Amino acid sequence: MKAPIGSSCGSKCADPAYPFEVTLFFRAHRERDLLEHWAEIRHHESGPVKLERMASSALVLTTTNLHLTHFFGDWANEMQPTTELLTPGTKVLDSKLGVRADQYRNPSFILSLDGPPIETNGRVLVGSLAWSGSFQCAFEHNGRAVRALCGLNPFASGYFLKPK
Predict the structure, then answer these.
(1) pLDDT tens digit sequence for 37-51
(2) Which value, in Å, is the radius of gyration of the alpha carbons in the chain?
(3) Spatial distance between the Cα atoms of 54 and 41, rounded to a whole number of angstroms
(4) Could you give the 3-state DSSP secondary structure of residue 112?
(5) How far is the C-alpha of 90 from the C-alpha of 71, rounded, in Å?
(6) Which one of 6, 129, 150, 157 has the lowest number of neighbouring Cβ atoms within 10 Å?
(7) Among 59, 4, 51, 56, residue whose Cα is nearest residue 25
(8) What's the rounded Cα separation, in Å, for the pair 157 and 98?
(9) Is the dihedral of CA 154, 110, 91, 39 positive or negative?
């Protein structure tokens, strides 16, 4: 679906068996080299439905030589970077603190696509959740691709969604 730069477009997905739909939205900001992505979930059941897991994005990369930089810290020592090679398996960055969870683990990451990150060279993707509550970014490496699934932390975060 094409949209003018700076505007948003959406793509609706519907469940074939249940009255659920998810609309995925994208907004490109060319001047900032930025892609904004979010999802809206709706249902047409007769009463509220409890959502157990919701993700804001699911990025799939077919390259597997990725280095992940993420950030940790505490008061007066925030945003300390750690960089590591993503190996087969799942690497989870998360916080279960609830409100202001970003004070200890920031919901942002950098993926270096060309080996270890170098300040002046190489390609990187940067991701950040605009969310200050409990979050989870899971990087699943299966040997052929890496999937980054990021959003609300599913731990103790069930959400009752009203109809429509």
Answers:
(1) 888 889 999 999 998
(2) 17
(3) 9
(4) strand
(5) 17
(6) 6
(7) 56
(8) 9
(9) positive
Q: Which residues of 35-72 are buried (b: 16+ CB within 10 A; e: fewer)?
A: eeeebeeebeeeeebebeeeebbeeebeeeebbbbbbe
Say which residue the tokens 């509220």 belong to: 48
pLDDT number for residue 8: 58
Task: Give the number of other CB atoms < 10 A from CB of residue 123.
Answer: 10
Q: Which residues contact 36 (CB under 8 A, 6 or more apart)?
A: 8, 26, 27, 28, 29
Q: Which two tokens stand for residue 64?
A: 């597997």
Report the distance separating Cα 112 and Cα 135, nearest Å. Answer: 22
- Which of 130-153 are b and which e, b meaning 16 or more Cβ less than 10 Å from the residue's Cβ? eeebbbbbbbbbeeeebebbbbbb
